[in-house]
Amino acid sequence: MDKSDAQLFTNLCSFGWYSGEVFPLVYDESNQIYAQKGITFASLKHLDAIGLVTFESLSGFLLQGLGQSVTFFYYGAPINVEFQNTENNNFQVGKVLLTKVGKELAPICGSVRIDGFMDYIVSEWSKLGYIPSSPLKSTTNAS
Predict the structure, then answer these.
(1) Is the Cα dihedral 26, 118, 103, 64 positive or negative?
(2) Residue 132 and residue 126 in contact, taking contact as beta carbons nearer than 8 Å
(3) Rounded distance, CA 81 to CA 93, Å?
(4) pLDDT score, position 143
(5) Which phi and psi angles does 100 have, rounded to 5°?
(6) Alpha-carbon distance 3 to 109, whole Å?
(7) How far, in Å, CA of 128 to CA of 106, rounded?
(8) pLDDT 10s per residue in the chain (143 long)?
């Protein structure tokens, strides 16, 4: 992996949400929010070719068999997603999954939060029929 590959992977991980593992949430790689960080169809195909991600451009990936809610974290900020059914729910996590190597590199790659991405994802989740909500925030400041 060369320096440009490492930077591209770091940029992708900046779109990563955590719920048991890291999921870089890429729903529409042609959207400007991704393109401004160099995340495009071609760059995702490249990261797939070098073994850091699995990219499925057409159908994407699902988490299956979920309960009535799941909590995702974006750089420590939680968002709950509620489902209509009490069990056996599916959740679209987009078109990219990290490989084993990608999962090992993600926590140490130096990714940073992207301004506006949380709002973008909440909007996408609403379009998909999910019910996202922020849990009550603590009044203490954790460091």
Answers:
(1) negative
(2) yes
(3) 12
(4) 40
(5) -55, -45
(6) 12
(7) 26
(8) 899 999 999 999 999 999 999 999 999 999 999 999 999 999 999 999 999 999 999 999 999 999 999 999 999 999 999 998 999 999 999 999 999 999 999 999 999 999 999 999 999 999 998 989 876 544 444 44
Q: How far apart are CA 98 and CA 12, in angstroms?
A: 10
Quick one: DSSP state of residue 87?
Answer: S
CB 71 within 8 A of CB 78: yes
Where are the extended beta strands (E) located within 2-137?
16-18, 22-24, 53-55, 61-66, 69-74, 77-82, 89-94, 96-98, 131-133
Q: Is-contact 23 110, C-beta < 8 A?
A: no
Would you list the domain boundaries of the chain? Answer: 3-133
pLDDT of residue 1: 83
Q: Using the Cα atoms of residue 97, residue 79, residue 104 and residue 106 in order, give the sign of their dihedral.
A: positive
- Predicted model pTM: 0.89
